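For reproducibility, we list the full input for the EPZ complex.
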Amino acid sequence: MDKLVVTGGGRLTGEVVISGAKNAALPILCACLLSAEPLKLTNVPELNDIGTMLKLLAQMGVKVEREGENVTLDASGLNNPLAPYELVKTMRASILVLGPLVARCGEARVSLPGGCAIGARPVDQHIKGLQSMGAEVGVEHGYVVAKVGRLKGARLFTDMVTVTGTENLMMAACLADGETVIENAAREPEVVDLAQCLISMGAQISGAGTDLIRIRGVEKLHGASHRIMPDRIETGTFLCAAAITGGDIRLLGTSTGYLDAVVDKLLDAGCEITGEKTAKHECIHIIAPPRLKAVSIRTAPYPAFPTDMQAQFMAINAVADGTAIIRETIFENRFMHAVEMQRLGADIKIDGNTAVMKGVEKLQGATVMATDLRASASLVVAGLVAEGETHVERIYHLDRGYANIEAKLNALGANIRREKA
Ligand code: EPZ
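The corresponding predicted structure, in tokenized form, follows.
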């Protein structure tokens, strides 16, 4: 298993290009299942999770052509509505094939994703929604097994805001008979990007980005082309890397529009952040002070502060001036990076879903272990300012969601090398 060796050092300066959004690309790849005509995608990030999803689609009979960030998917030969455990266990987002398969094929067998480091992550809302649309859905030998003639439009209400639950049900509803209304829908920008792709395929959707989405089912969807939106969590992660090092960087191909809650907190911490438009790019310019002020955060569904940025803010608060309170309200076990940061010298006290942090002057490099995707990123961010070397182990977690993070950070002046552990 690889590890990253991060040598703490100076401020980050220069420009970085932000890749396409993992959490928009994953549902949009699955949208190809809804049509017998090709879906052409650009700005698809080159990540391990994307590779896993393409493998999953290919074993269902989807023709996959990939050239760098351009992917063409042709599901005209879809003949195997099965998502096997061997692939699903490596990537929970595989559950996103369930809705499209039931809608297109009238049946699906999708392995239950199982829990992951940050929580149990059940998919009961996905199942409940499909049942409300007339599908017979059960769990047999660890697989979700669904069967239906044709889904029927229904009024759906999810018990909690669920991003992939909203996405699965929105995709399923595109081919249902009649109108579906999803109440308490997730408002994340990735849901909107998926809706825009589906609409370009001929779906009739309104309200994406609000908590009430209406979908009028159609007989079939046609092919389309779509460019994946920029990754707002990669954007936030690089903003934090600049902020913690007192840096001055430009992030190209992204905008502050998807990250108001995160930008507000970085402004409170003392950073200057401006959105800029050049001939080629939308971009963000951040200039950070020599030392940040501590900022408290509370995670919640979009547009509030994203849970996927909580770990990165634990890193910047570790060396900020003052005390910060971090509340995690989405996942029940998303503080595992805290104990790793304590190994670097961070002053963090955990009490249930609340962390109380007191910023220290300096962190010391140490060997730490990545436990999940965003936790890994936060340990790299902390390592940028820790004294000496920080060895971040098990970085396969990192490679799932960040394309060449060490190359991008080194181009900004960081000192990171990848080693076989
Ligand atoms: C999506 O996960 C993202 N993944 C996650 O990003 C992100 O952290 C999360 O949304 C919250 O924003 C993708 O989009 C691929 P949820 P998802 O359903 O959809 C509970 C990353 O780092 N719940 O919105 O799985 C659930 O347990 C990843 O890129 C149920 O109880 O999250 C959680 O407590 C990590 N039953 C809460 O709802 C259900 O049927 C929100 O989960 C569904 C969800």
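The chain has a mean pLDDT of 96. The pocket of EPZ is lined by residues 22-23, 26, 93, 119, 121-126, 160, 162-165, 307-308, 330-331, 373-374, 401 (CB under 6 Å). Both points were considered when choosing residues for closer inspection.
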